[in-house]
Write a structure and sequence with these properties.
The complex is a heterodimer of chains A (369) and B (98). Chain A has helices at 7-12, 32-41, 58-68, 116-125, 128-131, 150-158, 202-215, 224-233, 241-245, 267-276, and strands at 16-20, 23-28, 44-47, 52-57, 81-87, 93-102, 105-112, 134-135, 140-146, 169-175, 178-184, 192-198, 219-221, 280-287, 299-302, 305-316, 321-329, 338-341, 348-352. Chain A has 369 residues and is α+β, with helices and mostly antiparallel strands. In chain A, strand 6 (93-102) and strand 7 (105-112) form a beta hairpin. The radius of gyration of chain A is 21 Å and the shape is globular. Chain A starts with 6 loop residues before the first helix and ends in a 17-residue tail after the last strand. Helix content of chain B is 59%, strand content 0%. Chain B has helices at 3-27, 51-65, 80-97. In chain B, helix 1 packs across helix 3. The N and C termini of chain B lie far apart (29 Å). Classes of the chains: A alpha+beta (369), B mainly alpha (98). The A-B interface holds A 83, 167-168, 187, 234-235, 252, 254-255, 258-260, 274, 277-278, 281, 283-284, 302-303, 331-332, 334-337, 353-355, 358, 362-363 and B 1-2, 5, 8-9, 12-13, 30-31, 34-41, 44-48, 74-75, 78-79, 81-82, 84-85.
Chain lengths: 369, 98
């Protein structure tokens, strides 16, 4: 199992750990509710070094990456980031990826549902070694800075020009003379950044980020609360609905695909499924009562028949209710319809339009930070 | 399926389909209507539209349904479903008034 390079520091902060696809990740630092409010109301720092990380020169990278990913890598402008996925040869999801065009090279960050060796074997099959793909997973760390005060933390670390960075962009900054990459990206629906730095910089940089977060009434968070934040914000979660549904089309990820591309891993099965038309797709559901427990795997009934299944669920602290994503037949995959949970006369749940919350970051003005 | 559920779906499908077709046409999106999930974010993550595109989204609703979207109402512009919610709510109010 791959252990976090920052395990000692995270342990000192109270982290509990869990294993996820061959990687140890910091699960919870304090408690989920505290971490939720840190990010929704202030700012949270999270160690996402569990991501698989790769670098390839811009000169050779385009051809290699174009053959792998469904997004159009050739069209990524300088200093911009593409959000796409990686599928297996059957067109089933295996990784949620950011690809950054960062000056002379491309950086690829992956949240995947396969271990390091399996992902590397897939890339090698498509010529990673010949193209010179560098695996920087073990030599680099990734931190996220999320929350409606994330800008304040990153501004203090990098300078005021970070306020002008558009969503899905990348820039290089320095910390104690050493360079690191700052991605303007995030999956909480609050302001978000990812920091990619060398392992050597990790401890000092993380300590600095925690101090800046605490100055802004936030703190260190675990990865588990991000499952709730992603679901509330209707950001795709490879570790929840991605893992159970697998089909990018049923998950509504068509926007990550350039259907004009003639080659990417899993293209033919995905295109065939698109041509046949969707039979099911994922939509939001909400329990009527705060006491009602919504669990992934639960079946949903209508008029005595089982019609759908919950694929991901969480308790939304923002709504004080359980919410989830369920896979419905397309004919009834619409919001504001009532169904029963677990059995034909079970508790009532309703389909909803997602995302069900309005994050502070969409309403805040810069001078309020 | 009971008639009331079918009527709710039919009314929404008509609005959603019109919004999707108009967005694809106005913004030259490289997708078919069925490729656009109704919950996908229009700005930032998701379709990645920018502030210039926002005007086209507003005009899309105004031209298709004759309904004006209030200035600075970000909540309405978040997804196809939130646009449809606004249109259907407006239609219901008009129906109630009539």
């Amino acid at each position: 199992m791959r252990i976090s390079a920052l395990r000692d520091l995270l342990s000192q902060q109270g982290a509990s750990f869990k294993e996820r696809f061959g990687v140890e990740v910091p699960s919870v630092i304090s408690d989920l509710k505290t971490e939720y409010h840190a990010i929704r109301d202030h700012v949270g720092i999270t160690d996402f070094s569990s991501m698989q990380k790769f670098r390839i020169t811009a000169e050779r990278g385009v051809d290699f990456l174009e053959n792998l990913f469904p997004g159009n890598v050739a069209k990524i402008r300088f200093c911009r980031v593409l959000h796409t996925f990686l599928s297996d040869e059957n067109g089933n999801l295996i990784a949620d990826c950011y690809i950054a065009n960062n000056d002379e090279d491309f950086i690829v960050l992956c949240d995947s549902v396969v271990d390091d060796a399996t992902l590397k074997a897939l890339m090698n099959k498509y010529g990673a070694q010949e193209f010179g793909l560098e695996d920087i997973t073990a030599t680099h760390v990734v931190f996220s800075v999320d929350g409606y005060k994330a800008w304040a933390v990153v501004k203090e670390l990098c300078g005021a020009d970070v306020l002008g960075l558009p969503y899905l962009s990348v820039e290089t900054y320095r910390f104690e003379e050493a360079p690191f990459s700052l991605f303007r990206a995030g999956k909480t629906s609050e302001f978000g950044y990812l920091i990619l730095a060398t392992k050597d910089m990790g401890p000092k940089l993380l300590a600095k980020l925690i101090a800046l977060a605490q100055k802004n009434e936030g703190g260190l968070c675990g990865t588990t609360i991000h499952d709730t934040l992603r679901l509330e914000g209707r950001f795709f979660n490879i570790f929840a609905e991605g893992l159970s549904v697998k089909d990018p089309l049923a998950l509504g990820l068509q926007w990550m695909i350039d259907f004009d591309k003639e080659v990417f891993i899993g293209r033919d099965p995905i295109v065939t499924r698109r041509e046949k038309g969707l039979t099911h797709k994922i939509i939001g559901v909400k329990a009527e009562s705060a006491l009602e427990d919504l669990k992934a795997g639960a079946f949903i009934f209508h008029e005595g028949k089982q019609v759908a299944q919950v694929q991901a669920a969480c308790f939304s602290y923002g709504l004080n209710a359980w919410i989830g994503l369920a896979l419905f037949p397309v004919a009834i995959a619409y919001p504001y319809l009532s169904f029963n949970l677990e059995k034909p006369d079970g508790l009532t749940i309703a389909t909803i339009a997602m995302p069900p919350i309005m994050p502070k970051s969409l309403t805040v003005k810069l001078d309020e930070l | 399926m009971d008639q009331s559920m079918q009527a709710t779906i039919d009314e929404r499908v008509a609005v959603i389909q019109a919004i999707k077709e108009e967005l694809i046409r106005r913004l030259n999106l490289p997708y078919k209507p069925e490729d656009l999930h109704e919950d996908v974010s229009l700005f930032g993550a998701g379709l990645g539209l920018d502030s210039l595109d926002a005007l086209e989204v507003v005009l899309c609703v105004e031209n298709c349904f004759g309904i004006r979207i209030p200035d600075n109402n970000i909540a309405i512009l978040r997804s196809i479903n939130t646009l449809a919610d606004y249109v259907l709510e407006h239609k219901a109010k008009q129906g109630g008034a009539a």
